[in-house]
Amino acid sequence: MERKNAWKLCSKKDCQEAFALSEDYRRFISDCKTERECTLESIRIAEENGYRNLDELVKEGAKLKPGDKVYAVNMGKMLALFNIGKKPLQNGMQILGAHIDSPRIDLKQNPLYEDTDLCLLDTHYYGGIKKYQWVALPLAIHGVVAKKDGSVVNVVIGEDPSDPVVGITDLLIHLSQDQLQKPGAKVVEGEALNVSFGSMPDPSAYPEERPDPAAEENSDAADKKKDGKHPVKAYILKLLKEKYGIEEEDFLSAELEAVPAGPARDYGLDRSMVMGYGHDDRVCAYTSLRALLAVPEPEYTGVCLLVDKEEVGSIGATGMQSRFFENTVAEILALTCESYSDLLLRRCLKNSCMLSSDVSAAFDPNYPEVNEPKNSAYLGGGFSFNKYTGSRGKSGCNDANAEYIAYIRKLMDEEHVTFQTSEIGKVDQGGGGTIAYILANYDMQVIDCGVPVHNMHAPWEVVSKIDIYETTRGYIAFLKGGR
Ligand code: MN
Ligand code: MN
């Protein structure tokens, strides 16, 4: 069974639309590099399209009717958007889910130190990364610092072309004799991922004339007395105070993430692809949101669910395993029906269908040995469906029901969506998990799907513009779907 390349099935208009959509997406991921930034920007886009905050509607005691648009946000890092359908909610929803956290290098809680007259930031990486890929790269720092007075300071360093960037040093090849004998996982180790943050004491204290190194007042002992033990760190702290109003203690309540600096770019001479940080899984998140906005009056309530913490096991208050989604559906149900009951909530969840979206591993001709070609996703192959993910014997997977896949095939074929089917690599090679099984615990129909990607989890990942487009068309076909 062979499937056609999506470019070969597209019209001039499709091609134009694919490029226009991909440009919107390229801008989105260039600006949004953390789960918080993705949440904020998605709320902005949603409000522009008539979505209202659930908290306000609950306060007003409002009633929801078909066509109403609502969103709920969880701690600034997780978002659920609902487009109320014509059918009663207990008949089920059409849910698009994706995650907005991406692998990166988080700063530790006590990060700042000085070593050999350099100021450094200690880190703890987040998600599965090949550590050696994150050295000798321009990095930016994005995040928030929450202060004791209740204010939250936003930080973005390294994105404006006039900003400085930061980075992590790599060992020079000339002295790498021993390092290069190590296995890949040990070439660069976690504790060596320290971000270079500064290297000079405060210049405002420098004398007008070049100091005499032999003079008594310039001895090491005199220096220490004058500048303290860590003058380079002290100057960094002064800059942080001036620019952000933060003290060293404020790092205790901060979430700061080192990510690749700079915008996503068109990739390939033909500009058919996009190279960017965090396609996993913002390429599915952004396209899910766009699809939701493209179907204003659905039969079944349309949902776009954007979650945090997928890359570390979907745990915590903002991960898929939290009660946030269930609680939010309960609130929405209470605003749409005459008399709320727990049974109606159970029915609503059970009768729902979900596309659990996450990037697929695209076949890479440089590494053909890890894939089984008939069951691989290809860049340019269109929207990719995975009946199951998991690893080594489907362990930990959500195995979508055959009947549900038949329903999905029908929806895709009716709208001429180019799709492909795949699994992550050869059977014994490895694999991965998604949020699919967590929603399936509600007894709803769930299938894994998404956009194929090259370089998954590397600082710069690659996707195809036609896959972005076909995936969005697929989401739209799903949201319009009846039962
Ligand atoms: Mn991932
Ligand atoms: Mn993912």
Q: Could you characterize the architecture of this molecule?
A:
The longest helix is centred in the N-terminal third of the chain and has 20 residues, at about 10-30. The chain has twelve helices and 23 strands. The chain is of the alpha/beta class. Helices cover about 30% and strands about 25% of the residues. It has helices at about 10-30, 35-50, 55-60, 185, 220-225, 230-245, 280-295, 325-335, 340-350, 400-415, 435-440, 465-480, and strands spanning about 50-55, 70-75, 80-85, 95-100, 105-115, 120-125, 140-145, 150-155, 165-170, 195-200, 255-260, 265, 275, 300-305, 355, 360, 385, 390, 420, 430, 445-450, 450-455, 460-465. The strands form five sheets. A nine-stranded mixed sheet has the order 1-2-3-14-4-15-21-17-19, sandwiched between helices. Strands 8-7-11-5-6-10-9 form a seven-stranded antiparallel sheet. About 45% of the residues are buried. It folds into two domains: about 5-100 and about 275-480, Zn peptidases (Aminopeptidase), CATH 3.40.630.10; about 105-260, Aminopeptidase i, Domain 2, CATH 2.30.250.10. The model has no long low-confidence stretch (mean pLDDT about 95). Strand 12 and strand 13 form a beta hairpin. Helix 1 crosses helix 12 (about 465-480) and helix 7 (about 280-295) packs across helix 12 (about 465-480). The two termini are about 30 Å apart. The chain binds manganese (II) ion (2 copies).
